[in-house]
Specification:
Length: 88
């Protein structure tokens, strides 16, 4: 490639430097946005994990209630029989 004539270089170099500076500024902004997105993603994952733990706790409580229901039903039947026996 041949040498660029001096007048063309003097004409284009300031504009090329300006464009180069703008591109660097855009890259800096993109890097900032990427960091912000990563931070927000991390924050959302933390919140999702917290909600997941809460759901697991609710599921555990529901399982406990389900396990006690048959016992409560049998106790109600027993109380009904006992009441019938005492009534006689």
């Amino acid at each position: 490639m041949g040498k660029v004539p001096g007048w063309l270089e003097r004409l284009l170099m300031p504009k090329l430097n300006e464009i180069s500076g703008e591109i660097k500024a855009i890259h800096t902004r993109i890097d900032g946005v990427e960091k912000e997105v990563a931070s927000l993603r991390s924050e959302m994952m933390t919140k999702f994990e917290s909600v997941d733990r809460r759901f697991e706790a609710v599921e555990s409580r529901l399982d406990s209630i389900e396990a006690r229901l048959p016992v409560m039903e049998k106790m109600a039947e027993f109380e009904a029989r006992l009441t019938d026996c005492v009534a006689f």
